[in-house]
Design brief:
Elements (H helix, E strand, L loop, with lengths): L5 H16 L4 E7 L3 H9 L3 E10 L2 E11 H5 L4
């Protein structure tokens, strides 16, 4: 089932809801640096890294990135 774009589609639907229905101005998402597939979804969505920090995950302490996109960036992104 991998590689079919289902997570990207789900992420886009949630982001549309965040900005369109809830009317939020900014979306921030923390991600473990080692989670390359999650990073790829954020990159494709037009998000950018605004900060890195250490975070305690179930698997132990890891470097984490905080990704961000604004409502205007989301609505004006190339599709």
């Amino acid at each position: 089932m991998q590689g079919q774009g289902l997570m990207q589609e789900a992420s886009d639907a949630v982001t549309d809801y965040w900005f369109g229905v809830l009317g939020k101005a900014v979306l921030r998402a923390p991600k473990a640096v080692a989670n390359l597939k999650s990073r790829r979804i954020s990159e494709r969505s037009g998000m950018r890294v605004i900060r890195t920090q250490y975070h305690e995950y179930v698997s132990g302490r890891q470097m984490e990135e905080i990704w961000e996109i604004t409502r205007d960036e989301w609505l004006n992104r190339p599709k």
